Amino acid sequence: MNIKRAKNEIKNALRAYLARDAFGAYRIPPIRQRPILLMGPPGIGKTQIMEQIAEETGVGLVSYTLTHHTRQSALGLPFIETVQLGGAERTVTAYTMSEIIASVYREMERTGTKEGILFLDEINCISETLTPMMLQFLQCKTFGNQRLPDGWMVVAAGNPPEYNKSVREFDVVTLDRVKRIDVEEDFAVWKEYAYRRGIHGAILSYLEIRRDHFYRVEATADGLQFVTARGWEDLSELMQVYETLDLPVDRQVVGQYLQLPRVAADFANYLQLYEKYKRVYRVEEILDGAWEKVRASELAGAAFDEKLGVLGLLLARLADSAREAYRLDRLTDALHQDLVHIREGEKMLGTLLDEKQAALTRRRDAGSTDKDALFTAAREAERLAAFQQALALEKVPKGQAFERLKALFQEDVQARADAADRTDRQLANVFAFLDAAIPNSQELVLFATELTANYFTSWFIQNFGCEAYFAHNKQLLFDDTRQRLLREIGSAEPD
């Protein structure tokens, strides 16, 4: 199955494992809560979905890469203990708490969350001395005589043997005690994730043309050479920062992430074309509606790959604008809820500020990768601090404080409205340009389709509307219906 389906399966299993009956007991006894064994190629997002699941469900997450552990760190260190056995005092060997189990308890204390996920990566690449201990843990959820706390689900991940020479096969006894999920790469699913994460537009438009370069592992005389989803995402992060620092991304830089030379070279060449399209077609002018007719003529006569590259540029910029509107919308909603709490007397401004700053710290300490949620949390705390400072500096009387807060909040409402208006204008301007350059074309159909597929542009259109988009979608639906009727008429004609 693909990684999206695997994520849903794990979330459903977590919900089932944590479900309780009327007496507060787990409906599935812990002994029957099978660990999940997630098997799939490296770099397709197994670790990322665990972070997403924990963040979305509000449970704790403790992650370990088992190849970094020894028998002692997993099991604990031995010590001599004196006990009463058979009416006599005897010395026996006991063990300190496992580092892994201790980390679970630390996470519970740090977050106050009693339930969570213990994620054990590279489970089938562990050392020979650790193998018996890990098999015991998968079967009994214990290291030595120490048990994993109830309410914690075990998810283990591994790679098939063709990707790792160190892989050890599990026996039937172990496999019969786990819930196995086999995962494979899927570009369509990853693209949906990539839109949500804001992956660089050059990567998305390139992979739209070269889908076979999304994920490849090849055995060569020099060893395994590969390109993975993780490589593309990490390269995207670097490219976005390099752009802000005005640093070049050349073949050598690309090759550090895409470790299949011919793919790295091909993408580096495409990146040069992508930058050329940005200069030649003056994307910012198109967004502002100030494009020259010659630009439309140039695009009309361009090759298909060039058209897709330009569409990728436009989609990336529109997605950036829609994402800004999305973030400001979430921020405005959060601040509005804060003002409701203050108006109803449920919380004071200072108390709210302390809570939001503490929540932001917890998110950062937990290593949250949701940039949009982090933006909202950080800006919310920042705005509440600004509200508090304004009230103090202006020495606003207590009876007038809420009215002043409402006035300050209007600045955020206006910022959201401005972002929405800007995105709407840009959408209209881009459609006007494409109508002049490539009217009624398959590229225009693709553009409208990708606007729907992109999380942020789709969200924007759904919440704020877009006349140009709806007009084109209506035409697309009409054309689809017309083509279907023509096919039906053709099939009904006598031979």
UniProtKB/TrEMBL annotation:
Residues 32-185 form the AAA+ ATPase domain. SMART domains: AAA. GO terms for molecular function: ATP binding; ATP hydrolysis activity. It comes from the Bacteria. InterPro entries: AAA+_ATPase, ATPase_dyneun-rel_AAA, P-loop_NTPase. This is AAA family ATPase. It comes from Agathobaculum faecis.
